[in-house]
Amino acid sequence: MISPARKLAFQILRRVVAQGSRATDLLASSRVEQLSERDRRLAYELVLGVLRWQRLLDHLIAYYSRRQPERLDEPIRIALRLGLYQLRFLERIPAYAAVSEAVALVKQYGPVWGAGLVNAVLRRAASAPDARPWEKIADPIERTSVEWSHPVWLVQKWMRDFGTEEALALLRANNHAPPVAIRLNPLAAPAEEIVRALARDGIEIEPSPYVPGAYRVRSGSLSPRVEAWQRGWIYIQDEASQLIAHIVAPQPGMRILEVCAAPGSKTTHLAALMGNRGMIVAGDRSLWRLRHLARLSERLRVEIAHPIVFEGRGPLPLLPTTTFERVLLDAPCSGTGTLRRHPEIKWRLTQEEIQRMAEQQKALLEEAARWVAPGGWLIYATCSVEREENEDVIGAFLASRCEFRPLVPPVAEPFRTEAGYIRTFPHRHEMDGFFVAVLERKPDAATEGL
User: Fold this and answer.
1) Any catalytic annotation for residue 402?
2) Catalytic residue among 260, 333, 383, 402
């Protein structure tokens, strides 16, 4: 009999490959939440671990089977990845369990002949668990790509952009699970009451060393079954993502426009920092995602968020004379700063896609700039570590928009770059890789709509 965790992990990995689904979305499904705590943790570990180490696992498949992984049927390839990941990385799981359940998965979901192959390959791997065949690869970039399980082109790019030492540190960090970070919701309950509720559920938290009001989970397991979660008292959000709302520096009574706002993490955080006083216009092109934003706002007791549908690169459905003291563009991006939690991105992304995203970001930034009041701030943010999507986008914008000038809020000082922008990195700060630029419209500059 196949354990529920392994069966569900296998099914999720098949959907990630065949349908282009996001692993974390599938892991947040009711099927996963219905598992026991032990099986739920194992399902998470297997899915995200296999995706993080996919290139290394495929190299091992080729080594132990003497076959190219891409020529194997998909169920066989996924079962082998699961088995090898357990043999290589999960010391507490007995080898016989990893082997026998991988064989059982192929018997149920794959071709009949595949079970024998999986059994032979995994037994061979179990008998030589310390083999490091990638060390024989002559090309250093190719060897690094296999050892740290990232595409060759991305390894080359990061070594060129960041230098060898920094790139290697980033590669290593991306293969570790990120810490769980939360924020407490002051709109729902006092902080002391929330901390006590978490403690009752066996969850201990500690303040972030970097971000005001952010906390890391030291022990215990968060899930929708936790009281504080159910009551809307907490929200799971990476520290770098939380930092953005503080960089915006919202004040009660302000008028704020957020472009590309869904699913609402930053919208609801801004509202909490404003004490539900003021107005946030939350725009997104997806009606479905805006509905999620509205539900999240209700759960977190946010009253000042006003969702609107717009395409982002076209005119906003607002009066021409409307302006805002803060305009936040949380731009669609490659997501290379989030590979720890979304590892499938690195197997889908291309250099061409990064360039395409950069052109879209430039257009979105030009549109967002129209709505910034004189003396107001335009905040541009991505969860990408790529220069093309960050410094290059801002540089092109400032070259043609002399009415804007960059500034750095005090809260962002530890993350300031030489160019005066804001960057966070997994290997430096134990948080996602984000880029933020704050641009002030000069007080004497006229807005385009006025």
Assistant:
1) no
2) 383
